[in-house]
Amino acid sequence: MNHLKLFPLSLVSFPTKIVPLHIFEDRYKNLITDCVSNKSEFGIVYQNNNSLAEFGCSMKVIEVVKKYSDGRMDVITKGKNIFKLNSQLLDGELLIGEVKYNENKNDTNIDMFEILKDKYLKILLMLGVTSNLDGHLKKILSFELLEGITLPSEFELMLISTNSEFHRIKILDGIFDKILKNQFPVSDASHFES
After folding, report:
1. Does residue 95 sit in the same domain as residue 126?
2. What crossing angle do the helices spanning 165-180 and 110-126 adopt, rounded to 10°?
3. 0.85 cut: is pTM over it?
4. Nearest-angstrom CA–CA distance, 8 and 71
5. CB atoms near residue 182 (< 10 Å)
6. Residue 47 CB partners (closer than 8 Å, separation 6+)
7. Strands, DSSP E only, in 92-190?
8. Could you tell me the mean pLDDT of each successive run of 10 residues in the chain, 194 residues long?
9. Which residues pair with 82 in a beta bridge?
10. 76 lies in the same domain as 140
């Protein structure tokens, strides 16, 4: 088992997801400072009504955008590895999780993934995203096909709770079909720039 400092939030993170954070609480200012200094990771785990999700994602600070005179900071983080949260304890004001990193099955069906990627591109165009389409064509993981699309937390939690790429592709295929048929609401992504 591994131990990971946790940052509970009302969002789900996953590998490749970029998460900008405004850090203002002392415990998280210390956490981020430690992660930058030690080049270490922390975990984002979804919190709803004071309960933590069973799965989360380790995060790497990729940029400190701005430091304020009072110690607050704006940072950009990126999702790295999914973990299962087995237990947690409070160390001072910071939660420490006992985690087991998921071993992802590389059981991708290339043909299914290409069909899914085509649907993803159609959704981006439907949402008004026209920049960097070449970059979107180069994507090779199911999680990368969530860029620019905001799904309800329960669906993102379902995606991170499986270690099968094939299963994630099947889940996303069903969701993308509903989005394309306007049976599933998604946020406007016209502001999205990749």
Report:
1. no
2. 30
3. yes
4. 20
5. 9
6. 8, 9, 10, 53
7. 94-101
8. 94 96 97 97 94 97 97 97 96 95 84 95 90 89 90 93 94 94 66 39
9. 57
10. no
